[in-house]
Design brief:
Layout lengths: L1 E2 L2 E2 L5 E3 L8 H9 L5 E7 H5 L3 H5 L10 E6 L3 H12 L5 E6 L4 H4 L11 H14 L4 E6 L9 H10 L4 E5 L13 H8 L8 E4 L5 H11 L3 E4 L9 H11 L8 H20 L2 H4 L8 H7 L5 H12 L10 H9 L3 H10 L3
Length: 347
């Protein structure tokens, strides 16, 4: 499968763009475990052209992450074109447009999935971004605004006509948010539309190897994008690929190895958000004993940022009386606290 001139292996797996989730620390872990394509967090076009520091930080790309797409969102065609040009300077492989985010602070302002209520503007934005950059442009969107307006089959053709090189479809409407089940039948209908010539990437509810293989075989999509199923479990990509190769669904990491990966993610988040390059060293997942001693009892932004991964991880699912431990994880602020909690969990 190819997106423009970027080649991917058979049945490729992509990491979905997720705000406050797909920062470099998490992306590098997912890449290690087999993600074939990575996406940044959502990048606000307005904040990018105003040179907001936190937004500029989202453009950071490491060589080990490639291929990678920078995803931008906004409601103004001119601002989106300008933002795409700025994002292009970070040298990703792809510029992706977010027409799928359903949250109120995005969709309510006429960006993300909010543009499913203004298709003319969506197409205008898409055309302007395609014209603004030399890189391939892709789009991620949903089935439509609500159950009465599932317009994705026609919309996919219109977006293709704007010049995009691939389309990712989340199998829910905006009104569904993340509730109910993703409708892969409609994703398959887009893929099997003979007028569609670009790759179609399916997204929604892929949390097991069996479901991933079924979606490839039944709906014929060119790639599958995994979002929430990867939170707290970046090795899901390796588990799925192992299943593709062997037909066996086996845990690739022991319980202790899984806990070690969670710790690595915490360390990487701390290095990303709390330390400069000189302090942290070259390896994003390790710290010297001296540095750990110096920071182990400090309140760290990286701990606070990574807590949602720890709270959501399936690693601890089913462990008796885990609720109190989970609450403690969500309150931890130092390395000592969070590592002690992880170490205390046993099966």
């Amino acid at each position: 499968m190819k997106i423009y001139d970027i080649e991917f292996p058979d049945k490729p797996l992509f990491l979905a763009p997720m705000e406050d989730v797909t920062d470099p620390a998490f992306r590098l872990l997912c890449k290690r475990f087999g993600a074939d394509m990575l996406y940044t967090e959502f990048v606000s076009s307005e904040a990018l052209i105003r040179n907001v520091n936190r937004t500029q930080q989202k453009l950071t790309i490491y060589p080990e992450e490639r291929p990678i797409a920078i995803q931008i969102y906004g409601h103004d065609p001119a601002s989106m074109a300008d933002a795409a040009r700025i994002a292009e300077e970070a040298r990703p492989e792809i510029i992706d447009i977010n027409f799928g985010c359903p949250v109120k602070k995005v969709a309510g302002k006429g960006a993300g999935a909010g543009l499913l209520r203004d298709i003319d503007k969506m197409l205008h934005i898409t055309s302007e971004v395609v014209k603004a950059v030399k890189l391939p442009v892709t789009v991620k969107t949903r089935l439509g605004w609500d159950d009465d307006n599932k317009i994705i089959v026609d919309l996919a053709e219109q977006l293709q006509d704007c010049g995009i090189q691939a389309l990712t479809i989340h199998g829910r409407t905006r009104s569904q948010m993340y509730k109910g089940e993703a409708d892969w039948d409609l994703i398959g209908k887009v893929k099997n539309n003979q007028r569609m010539k670009i790759p179609i990437i399916g997204n929604g509810d892929v949390t097991t190897p069996e479901r991933a293989l079924e979606n490839f075989n039944r709906y014929g999509v060119d790639a599958i994008m995994i979002g929430r199923g990867s939170i707290g479990k970046p090795w899901i990509f390796s588990e799925i690929k192992q299943y593709f190769r062997t037909g066996e669904h086996k845990q690739i990491l022991t319980f202790e190895e899984q806990k070690a990966i969670l710790k690595e993610h915490v360390i990487a988040s701390v290095k990303w958000l709390d330390m400069d390059d000189e302090e942290g060293g070259d390896d994003p997942f390790t710290l010297t004993e001296k540095v750990i001693t110096e920071i182990s009892n400090k309140r760290l932004k990286g701990i606070i940022h990574s807590r949602r991964h720890l709270a959501a991880t399936p690693v601890f699912k089913g462990i008796p009386n885990f609720k109190e431990t989970r609450i403690a994880m969500l309150r931890a602020e130092t390395l000592n606290e969070v590592f002690a909690i992880i170490d205390s969990v046993n099966i």
